[in-house]
Automatic annotation (TrEMBL):
One Pfam family from the record: Ribosomal_L30_N
Organism (species): Sorghum bicolor
One cellular component term from this protein's GO annotations in UniProt: ribonucleoprotein complex
Keyword Ribonucleoprotein included in the entry's annotation: yes
Keyword annotations from UniProtKB, A to Z: Ribonucleoprotein, Ribosomal protein
Name of the protein in question: Ribosomal protein L30 ferredoxin-like fold domain-containing protein
The keyword Ribonucleoprotein is assigned to this record: yes
Skewed-composition ranges (Polar residues): 1-12
Signal peptide (UniProt feature, chain positions): none
All copies of domain Large ribosomal subunit protein uL30-like ferredoxin-like fold, residue ranges: 160-192
Location of the Large ribosomal subunit protein uL30 N-terminal eukaryotes domain: 76-146
Length: 301
């Protein structure tokens, strides 16, 4: 059958055959192919079952020979033995140290809870005694005079002096022990600072929320009792409640505890300051505001 007129034909030439030396090459018979017609596909492969036929020999890797039962002993270097012994000794020491620290932590925790309860009872007893004395004075027709304060909290509000009071930046705050020298210093710098008598709540919130300790001349947050024990353990101050108590009652180690505390870096007071150039009694912010310092601490904490 001849192809259509619009399609051209192409003759596919087969491989050349050589029958003898010197004879001309011959070609296999080929069929004409049409353009755009695919080449004929090769025949499908033989069934894969023939590969697994028992008549087809299969080759396997050679089976390794049996290894000798005797293993050659390799001499371990002496440095490796010393290193192993040293690491074992370190592991034992580390385990013993961890166990000792755990026992110490349990013992310290019990002591801390006991002291916290004791301080709470002491503060409650002081408040009840104060209320009772005021009632007795009122019944007798008199007035109760509060005992002389021992503690001051000073906040720097302006100026660039006050280095002796550790107030090196605006809105720095420190605790001070009330004595003649302190009062004289505060009178000299009254236009640059606000101060008063903090209560237990203010002292506790300042130390818990804004407190930093001084260890190796570094500012360390009071995130755990280990920091306090490292700095004040020799003065029997091992936890944050011990520190609050020592500051609040102005105890025998107040100087060491106060120096351990880094000056408080307070925030700008909520609502701002009124007139920091004027004294508090004149409607300003500077000077002694006695118990009203707690309201300022609350706004700056």
């Amino acid at each position: 059958m001849s192809p259509p007129a619009h399609q051209s034909t192409t003759t596919r030439r087969g491989p050349k055959l050589f029958s003898a030396v010197g004879s001309p090459p011959q070609t296999l018979a080929t069929k004409p192919l049409l353009h755009n017609q695919p080449f004929p596909l090769p025949p499908p492969p033989a069934s894969t079952s023939a590969l697994h036929s028992p008549h087809v020999p299969l080759s396997y890797p050679a089976r390794p020979g049996k290894m000798s039962s005797e293993v050659a002993k390799v001499a371990v270097p002496e440095s490796v033995l010393r290193k192993q012994k040293r690491e074992e000794q370190w592991a034992v020491e580390k385990k013993e140290k961890a166990l000792a620290e755990k026992k110490k932590s349990i013992k310290s925790r019990k002591l801390i809870f006991t002291r916290a309860k004791q301080y709470a009872k002491e503060y409650d007893a002081q408040e009840k005694e104060l209320v009772q004395l005021k009632r007795e004075a009122r019944l007798k027709g008199g007035f109760y005079v509060s005992p002389e304060v021992k503690l001051l909290f000073v906040v720097r509000i302006r100026g660039k002096i006050l280095q002796l009071l550790r107030l090196r930046q605006i809105f720095n705050g420190v605790f001070l022990k009330v004595n003649k020298a302190t009062i004289n210093m505060l009178r000299r710098v009254e236009p640059y600072a606000a101060y008063g008598y903090p209560n237990l709540k203010s002292v506790r919130e300042l130390i818990y929320k804004m407190g930093y300790g001084k260890l190796n001349k570094q500012r360390i947050p009071l995130s755990n009792n280990q920091v306090i024990e490292a700095g004040l353990g020799k003065h029997n101050i091992i936890c944050i409640e011990d520190l609050v108590h020592e500051i609040m009652i102005v105890g025998p180690h107040f100087k060491e505890a106060n120096n351990f505390l880094w000056p408080f870096k307070l925030k700008a007071p909520l609502g701002g300051l009124k007139k920091k150039r004027n004294h508090y009694v004149e409607g300003g912010d500077a000077g002694n505001r006695e118990n009203y310092i707690n309201e300022l601490i609350k706004r700056m904490n």
